[in-house]
Design the sequence.
């Protein structure tokens, strides 16, 4: 009798553990990332080498900063189609400040991030004041910012970047790139803000139900404006880090950001309907996207099929997420 009771308790504990896991919006991407690591580790000999881990971590870190610029707008139920264009104009602002104006690197960083914030402010202002959909607004502004990028740079990259500035993008500490440690610190801050601060809670509530948030006294317009500004700031920061990695400031930067900014943000558990974000999910998703690119190259797979494999992984993640949501709905019934 006692044995049967103990057995039933163990079954209940296992079911409870599985249920708690499936309630997490980031569990699907975590499982997918671990699966990819296992597959590539088995199929390629040099995948787990320190050199390769260093490169994958560096790439994932850059993807993460780009994705934060998208996630902070998705969380309020919007999107920033102009994210890549903002990144491009920030890169040009940095390069122009250093190469043409002769400004020191630290001052150029401030200029680039300020430019990103201003671009985000313009997007947010139009969205809030004219009550327009963020997709339409940022689509239009992406053409404006891209035109400024091409007009200012005339299509030529800024190459006179101080060697000292590339340290953060190319060097590391304890076997991992500085970008990785910067990513970890940033994610801890993001986690803390959304879990323990008033402003973080207000952003989540606004994204979950803007009408209810407004009725509860939250100044939702200010929240939306703030998120667009932060999106621009993250785009500027990502652009600066991109320069540090490349050692130059090409105006083409940001051309492919929209694809993986949405991929990392959405696969990482940021709900398209708004109101949900997970730092651990973003971390896992950024590595997953970087792993796909790196693993396919190491397996000598035709790189032209990269987006096909990325689409398959995204689709599998979506299927698992759909299963998770249905499971949770069933449990509530």
Sequence:
């Amino acid at each position: 009798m006692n044995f049967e009771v103990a057995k039933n308790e163990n079954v209940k504990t296992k079911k409870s553990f599985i249920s708690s896991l499936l309630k997490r919006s980031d569990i699907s991407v975590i499982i997918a990332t671990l699966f990819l690591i296992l597959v590539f580790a088995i199929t390629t000999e040099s995948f787990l080498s320190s050199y390769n881990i260093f490169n994958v971590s560096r790439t994932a870190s850059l993807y993460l900063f780009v994705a934060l610029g998208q996630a902070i707008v998705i969380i309020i139920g919007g999107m920033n189609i102009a994210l890549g264009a903002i990144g491009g104009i920030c890169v040009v602002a940095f390069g122009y400040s250093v190469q043409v104006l002769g400004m020191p690197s630290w001052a150029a960083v401030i200029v680039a991030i300020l430019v990103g914030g201003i671009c985000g402010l313009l997007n947010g202002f139009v969205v809030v004041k004219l009550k327009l959909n963020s997709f339409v607004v940022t689509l239009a502004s992406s053409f404006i910012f891209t035109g400024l990028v091409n007009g200012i740079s005339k299509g030529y990259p800024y190459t006179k970047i101080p060697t000292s500035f590339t340290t953060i993008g190319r060097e590391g500490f304890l076997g991992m790139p500085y970008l990785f440690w910067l990513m970890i610190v940033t994610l801890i801050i993001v986690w803390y803000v959304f879990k323990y601060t008033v402003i973080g809670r207000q952003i989540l509530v606004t994204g979950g139900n803007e009408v209810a948030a407004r009725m509860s006294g939250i100044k939702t317009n200010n929240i939306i404006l703030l998120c667009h500004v932060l999106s621009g700031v993250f785009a500027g920061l990502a652009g600066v880090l991109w320069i540090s990695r490349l050692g130059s400031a090409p105006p083409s930067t940001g051309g492919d950001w929209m694809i993986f900014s949405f991929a990392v943000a959405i696969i990482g558990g940021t709900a398209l309907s708004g109101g949900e974000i997970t730092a651990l999910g973003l971390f896992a998703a950024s590595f997953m996207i970087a792993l796909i690119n790196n693993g396919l190259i190491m397996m000598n797979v035709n790189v032209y099929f990269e987006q096909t494999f990325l689409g398959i992984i995204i689709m599998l993640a979506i299927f698992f997420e759909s299963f998770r949501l249905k499971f949770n709905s069933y449990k509530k019934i």
